[in-house]
Amino acid sequence: MKSAEIVELAHQNLANTYGCMPLAFARGEGPYLYDPEGNRYLDFFCGLAVTSLGHAHPRIVAAIREQAGMLTHVSNVFHTEPMARLAARLTAVFGGGRVFFCNSGAEANEAAIKLARRWGSGEGGGRYEIISTINSFHGRTLGTLSATGQEKYQQGFQPMVPGFRLVPYDDVAALENAVGKNTVAIMLEPIQGEGGVVMPKPDYLARARELCDRAKLLLILDEVQVGMGRTGRMFAWQHGNVRPHIMTLAKALGGGLPIGAMVARPEIAASLTPGSHGSTFGGNPVACAAALAVIDALEHDGAIENAGAVGGYLIERLREIASRLDNVAEVRGQGMIIGVVLKHEAQPVVDACVKERLLVNAAAGNVLRLLPPLTLTRAQADDGLKIIARALESAAAARRGKAA
Ligand SMILES: Cc1ncc(COP(=O)(O)O)c(C=O)c1O
Q1: What pLDDT is stored for residue 403 in this prediction?
Q2: Considering its fold, how many domains does the chain have in total?
Q3: Contact 246, 219 (CB under 8 A)
Q4: What is the per-residue pLDDT for 387?
Q5: What does the pLDDT average to over 277-289?
Q6: Which residues have a catalytic role annotated?
């Protein structure tokens, strides 16, 4: 099918939940995507931080092919080798613990919320309230939406689930003030991704952790967007060595296949007993085989170090570009999650980049968000930077024109 036919067929039949671009893709290779007509796009979006090792990574393709030909599903009534091995790998990188597998970021966070409540109902002395932050994003289930601090996503779905309290991000005093007799946990993103790549002060997580220790609260870190190497470490919390009680993963974990995971300290995870939580597809052997290949590639192919180095280069160059322009307020980020904060809406800049076949997206209205593959080379980074510079320059000129 041609691109236009795919787009039309999708528009006619899909629920209208996404503000889609009128583009369709047929295949991918490394940092490039190809539409059915064979046009090549440089991908600084990675399907929302999912295909972090690029498209059709040979290790991941081989693992999926091999597992798909052997066994695709048995349910959690039984065990499979990929699931057992992946759980062992994740607990090893987490530093001990227990894993619950599911299929998405929302489900991983839902599991974290339920585990915190379950622990709170027993060990925690009947506490249930979770503090999360304004401008956060934790998912679209009613539970995770209730933890999400962005009203636009809650519109029309109220009432939200009770038991959540929202406070400003990067504000330890606000966290402290919000702790009450029913508080059981604090749930944070190490960097607010959907919120516009908002970076907290370097000691925020450590101070939140101290507060949790003092008040006997659980620290839940949502690594769904920033985990699996994106910031230049396997997990973003490793930059400050703030190991949480519960960590959630999804997106890049499966290298493009749907999988989510909640990893919890063993003494906390002990609150989950047979029948207390579950997911039919959770731990699917094909998704687990893909995730094992992702971890192999991250640990052995230098992708994490590359994310730090090339991501740092991108940030540096973007700051140089921004210094010559009057429409960029700030360039922020870590590794391969970068936000260019504009003094106007980001969508025209996104559209200008896409026209030149560079995929980027807008977050929080005015932030141009870059989520390139961790394996991007400097030459590929330069290709993208040229397009971004042109798009930013023409947006700056249009803004000056409007003001005149
Ligand atoms: C930090 C964070 N948590 C949770 C989610 C939800 O993940 P999913 O869309 O896989 O349910 C997202 C998605 O963008 C996210 O960025």
Answers
A1: 84
A2: 2
A3: yes
A4: 98
A5: 98
A6: 137, 222, 251
Which pTM was predicted?
Answer: 0.98
Distance 236 CA to ligand 1 centre (A): 15
Residues 91 and 145 in one domain: yes
Pocket of ligand 1 (CB under 6 A): 48, 104-106, 109, 137-139, 189, 193-194, 222, 224-225, 250
**363 shares its domain with 227:** no
**Within this chain, do residues 370 and 356 fall inside the same structural domain, yes or no?**
yes
Same domain, 340 and 203: no
Residue nearest (by alpha carbon) to ligand 1 atom 8: 105
Pocket test for ligand 1, best of 107, 223, 251 (most atoms within 8 A of CB): 251
Q: How far apart are CA 167 and CA 211, in angstroms?
A: 15
Q: If pLDDT is split at 50, 70 and 90, which confidence band does 194 have?
A: very high
Picking from 300, 323, 346, the residue at the C-terminal end of a domain is 300
Residue type, 296: D
* DSSP of 317-383: HHHHHHHT-SSEEEEEEETTEEEEEESS-SHHHHHHHHHTTEE-EEETTTEEEE---TT--HHHHHH
Q: The domain containing residue 45 runs over which residues?
A: 3-56+302-403
Cα of 400 vs centre of ligand 1, distance in Å, is: 36
